[in-house]
Amino acid sequence: MLDIATPAPDFTLPDANGDDVTLSALQGGPVVLYFYPRDDTPGCTKESIAFSEHLDAFEAAGAKVYGISKDSVASHAKFATKRELTVPLLSDENGTVCEDYGVWKEKNMYGKKYMGIERTTYLIDANGHIAMVWPKVKVPNHAEAVLAAVQAL
User: Fold this and answer.
1) 98 belongs to the catalytic site
2) Domain count of the chain?
3) Which of 1, 35, 39, 141 could form a disulfide with 103 if both were Cys (CB 3.0 to 4.6 A apart)?
4) What are the b/e assignments for 93-131, b being 16+ CB within 10 Å?
5) Residue 8: inside a domain
6) What confidence tens digit (pLDDT) does each residue in 59-112 have?
């Protein structure tokens, strides 16, 4: 996990259309990065739909919102189309950004240990520093809580 007030690690990742998004190019306004485990799974779908439903309010507050997982560009495109998502999804297939942000963790399900993305959201301020972190996110009302934090910046 990254600490509040530290610089957010820069990255360039492709979105669902294959276009590159570079974090440092987004400075000047807040950026929300929500890391999620997998496309088209129940919790990830609910989270992505919630951020999509609030995207206009985030944009009105001057913020950009991106979902990030290790799924491929093609998987993101299919997920976004199927679920009518408007929030851009970024593909971190090699996991470098997930590791840089400390969300690639050992998980435990039914006694079986495996590596995966821990659902985490970062709010990055206009200067490129971590403003808030939500670790181990529970999906209900999360997008609303992040929106409130963006509006309070």
Assistant:
1) no
2) 1
3) 35
4) eeeebbeebbbbbeeeeeeeeeebbbbbbbbbbeebebb
5) no
6) 999 999 999 999 999 999 999 999 999 999 999 999 999 999 999 998 887 888
